[in-house]
Amino acid sequence: xxxxxxxxxAGLPLKRSLASALEAMGHQVLDAGTHGPxxxxxxxxxxxxxxxxxxxxxxLGVLACGTGIGMAMAANRHxxxxxxxxxxxxxxxxxxxxxxxxxxxxxxRTTGEEVALDALxxxxxxxxxxxxxxxxxxxxxxxxxx
Length: 146
Ligand code: RB5
Known about the structure:
single chain; five-stranded parallel β-sheet; 16% strand; globular; binds D-ribose
């Protein structure tokens, strides 16, 4: 799978761990930055990853910042993106099954590396259930509300 990944300075160490784990699993990682510890603006990287997922250049995305919240806020401005903040595998599984989430967001200041990795594994392994969830997910789109 091709997976786009990004972080700000606060999420950089977690992003590096998750990227290494993804590569060890055999995935191709597109790293949109940041690449160094200097303070930077999380929306820049959220938009870069969201654009790759929305364009189909990556099947899924992963974002890390201090809390994961700012990344999710920015990524979810893109109509095709359903970004979820994950604190563990249960949220990861359910947001794939029910919300068809396509970007996983993590907080380096709120979620330990091992738990984040467990959540990421669950996120990648779980398909969207469809069925009754399909029309609900469709209603997330502004087009469906028009
Ligand atoms: C950076 O200090 C912090 O605000 C950012 O990483 C993130 O937590 C925002 O949501």
